[in-house]
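We modelled the chain as a single entity of 377 amino acids. Its sequence is:
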Amino acid sequence: MKNKRIFWLAGENSGDLHASIVLKALKKQYKNIENFGIGGEKMVQNGFKSIFPFERFSVMGFIEVVKHLSFFVGVEKHIKEIFKNDPPDLVILVDYPGLNMRIAKLAKRFNIPTLYFIVPQFWAWKYKRIFKLQKYTDHIAYILPFEGKHFNKHNIAASFVGHPISEEININLTREKFAGEFDLDPKKKWLGFMPGSRYAEIKKMLPQFIDAISRFDPDKYEFLVSQASSISTSQLKKIFNEKDSYIKIVKENNYEMMKHCDFLTVTSGTATIETAYLGTPFIIVYKTSQISYQIGKQFIKIDQIGLPNIVIEKDIVPELIQNDVNGKNLHNIILDILSDKEKYNQISTDLKALHDILGSKTPSTEVTAIIGRMINE
């Protein structure tokens, strides 16, 4: 195979991680591919050449995007010049739909084959995006198995490649070592609480979690709260009181916390699918501003908010939304499940089924094979 050039666009930390694992496998199999475009440090560590500062792409919300609009206009203009004057052999878009859907259209304009890895959640809202995917991409590598029925319905070339978490999750501490690390009593039940990775959501969720914790007997339970790498200790201290010192903060070992706790309370997001994959029974919670919630209700087309429930198309784990998220409800649901062995074991069994589905394929192998076919056609 002659030398090939692949343009990648992964605009968020999660996309950088997902793409880096594929790049690592690709580099082992093909020695004559130049990988360049927009990506982060993990991609760079695997031979990727980044043409823009990655941190500039970490922008969320309408107002923030508007503030940085001139930057994104410049990025798109630069990509257009590349596609026009020195087109790559393949474009690979990773998640990040706000910009990637526009770049897919641009690639189509210049007849450059395009692979979309991890598509926008069109099935939850903005379903019309599927028709843009149909029009502007040549192949889709999807990570949630139920998405396949939508692509089949519209005759879109697509492949289920497994979920990236099957390759990304590592457990480095046994329960015994984890207990020693965080001074936990192995004879007690361990309750874990994951308030999220953004300060705005943590300010909404953590006070409810602390209220729930205050209702349990500390002689019978250990209480753990995760601290995302994006959140500083000083930000957490603004929410905690001195009397909450018996609550253990877990910063570096979130996967171990998910795995070794007896039960978890998890804010809706990526952590829900990670927790489900690891198999620990949990509850999904979500709370936003009342205005955002009312607006969202008009657009969201699905009944469930948790990816584990959506993937299996069954209410595996309970969900609490908006005003139902309070200390009393959390305490009651956690206690109800922990005290009902049959209910607890059923959740564990259902989560095992989800683990087997998501881990049935490995993206590094599957996506590399698709890339190989596309650059050799």
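As a brief sanity check on the tokenised model: The radius of gyration is 22 Å. Residues 40 and 143 are 21 Å apart (CA to CA).
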